[in-house]
Amino acid sequence: MRHWTIDLDHSHVGFAVRHLAIATVRGRFRLFAGHIETDDAGTPLRLEATADAASIDTGVERRDAHLRSGDFLDAGAHPVLALASAHIVAGDAGAARVDATLTMRGVTHPVSLALRWHGPLAGTAGEPRLVGEATATIRRSQWGLTWNRAIEAGGMAVSDEVSLHFEVQAVPA
Q1: Is the bond leading into 120 cis (omega within 30 degrees of zero)?
Q2: What is the 3-state secondary structure (H, E, C) of 52-88?
Q3: Percent of the chain beyond pLDDT 90?
Q4: Is residue 130 helix, strand or coil?
Q5: In CATH, which superfamily holds the domain spanning 2-172?
């Protein structure tokens, strides 16, 4: 078994959500950490990751402050978002499905991520790296993120559906 740590300088934890029915707001968490266990061939066996809720960044400070508030992440009371794999089902050519739990606002629900990974492979300096990308779609209301407003054109200001996107490079722990 091999143990890997997420390289923060070469990784990204992001999300996207529809806003006002036609626009998409994209954001990320600036502070996060994680560990991956693989077999000797590099096939993921287990993963865990956390993100600092207060580090949410959409590029608009007023919106970010609202997202950190009790209307959304409630970062003061629930400073950490956590993802932990329960089961990883490997597919062909570096594909896998990760059945995991996501904890946000103190609420835990299962999520399923589509994973693609490569490695171990050599980085630019010859160091071993594990490279992966995972995506999932969640309904934010399951975690108590229910703030919304009706819009004049019909529909709601913020979609319940949120796309999660992880781009990760990991180095030996």
Answers
A1: yes
A2: EHHHEECCCHHHHHHHHCCCCCCCCCCCEEEEEEEEE
A3: 76
A4: strand
A5: Lipid/polyisoprenoid-binding, YceI-like (2.40.128.110)
Give, rounded to a whole angstrom, the gap between the first and last alpha carbons of the chain.
12
In this structure, which amino acid lies at residue 45?
L
In 3-state terms, what secondary structure has residue 8? Answer: helix
Q: CB of 15 within 8 A of CB of 25?
A: no
Token pair belonging to 24: 């998409």
Q: What residues does each domain of the chain span? A: 2-172
> Within its chain, how far is the Cα of 63 from the centroid?
19
Residues 9-63 pLDDT 10s = 999 999 999 887 678 999 999 999 999 999 988 889 999 999 999 999 999 999 9
Query: Residue 114's beta-bridge partner residues?
Result: 97, 135
The pLDDT value recorded for residue 171 is 95
